[in-house]
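Subject: sequence -> structure tokens, single chain

Hey, anyone have a minute? Need the predicted structure for the following. Not urgent.
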Amino acid sequence: MSDYQSTFLKTAGIICLAVFVLSVVVLLPAINAANLFFDADFYKQALRQQDAYARFPKLASEQIMSALRSGTLSGGQGGQNPGSLPFVKNMKQSDWETIVSGLVPTEWLQTQVEGLIDGFFGYLNSDAPALEMKLSMAEVKNRVRGEPGWQAILQVLKAQPPCDFLDLFDLFFGMLDEGLAGLPSCRPPADLINEFKPDIQQALGEMVDGVPDEFDAAAVVQDSLPAGSSLEDLRTGVRGLRALAYLGLLAPLGSLALATLLVVRSWQDWLVWWGLPLVIGGTAAFLLALATPTLATLLIVNWMVASMPAGLSQGLGLTLSSLSQALFETFATRVALQAVVIAFIGFLMAGIWLAARAAAEVQRRRLR
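Reply:
Had a minute. Here:
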């Protein structure tokens, strides 16, 4: 073989190995993203690690206070802002936290949220004809009707200053005429408020009777899609991205195979021409994985925080930010571990080559 042919083949081999290294750096994160970011367990584990369900009462109470201050909370009678109701103005965040923790059990919340996550990603990863995402409100409605609902009313009254005589007069007629909206902005004696317990619990029951026992979250997902798009389009797109990522494996495998045909003439050549790109590709992918959480924070998490709607509490915003960062840290850890394995195999092959070369050199010296 002429020097020109040898140089050409080695140059082509080096180009093949460069393609391999670039493919590893791109495909290792891409394939992991295609698997992890469309896996329900990935999100469920992150929520558990962030202790999101136990922290929900505090986060919800912060959000309620933030919405009341900004005037973005609606739903009062006749579209009235609940924050304008006299008894609401006297309530603190700790009062709302107590109420939420009593009405929304942690176990119920976790079951419902994880059920929604399973339903969404189950649809994306299956051939199910329709998206099934149901949120059962039956337990919360029963708690509002029962003792937890009564305790919530007592917590509202506990937050008020003591009533005087005129306040008690207003209380009597206000409760008769306005129901729950007529709750006073003062705290009546306990024995007096207990007289209204049946009426209040009846009003609570009538209030939640208008809430369906089951809420169809699939309709919300459909409405959130761009105009003209469907859930089937979303599923097809996800499958296309995943197939494209796996199809990309042809690039590193093909480049290694082509380099082998071009320049490998012995098992020692194979160790060098495979070991070196494995070391470089694995190391580069590892360094990229280490930088991923920081890059995600700078590019994605900060964008999320900046684009959050007005009235969103700082605590909820920070929680969403930390949850997103935790997801990227889990993703980066998985990529980093796989990159270490790739680089280790490369170092092992290079080490065997060096050992074989040293043994051959010793053998030649002995023959002399």
